[in-house]
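Summary: Need help interpreting a holo structure output

Steps to reproduce:
1. Submit the protein chain below together with the SMILES for fe (ii) ion.
2. Request a joint structure prediction with the ligand placed.
3. Inspect the structure token block that comes back.

Expected: a single structure record containing both the chain and the bound molecule.
Actual: see attached output.

Input attached:
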Amino acid sequence: MHTPIVPGETKVPFMEWSEQYRMHIESLDQQHQAIIALINEVQEAIQSAAAPVVVDGILRKLSAYAEEHFAYEEQCMELCQFAALTKHQCQHREMKKAIVDFQTAIALGNPAIYMDLLNFLMKWLHGHILRMDMEYVRDVRSVGIR
Ligand SMILES: [Fe+2]
Ligand SMILES: [Fe+2]
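--- attached output ---
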């Protein structure tokens, strides 16, 4: 379904991809962009007052995609024997658990949680890419992964 375009109205995405997130590893940059797009889908559903079941559906998609991304990223780190792999895996696990907790709160009918959810998703991804993912770039690139 397409959102009708209203003349003069520019839609500003909730979270925007920017050069600061670029790791110069095409596969991973694309995956991060896809995660940002899914976070924006969650925000759009919330903003348009979609039913909790709809928000939950998008969260499931986000969670499934994030899981695939984390698995791929961890494989890359294993391949180059990245020293801080365990610490990094731990953060991935915490993120997955946090989404499950938000899903539980939504299922319990607590829409007040929506703002916390959006803040969490944006801050988590922003901080995680800049502080954790950037740490492995050199090692991952050194084994030829692009
Ligand atoms: Fe990561
Ligand atoms: Fe990542």
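--- end attachment ---

Reviewer comment: The chain has four helices and no strands. The radius of gyration is 17 Å.
Status: needs-info
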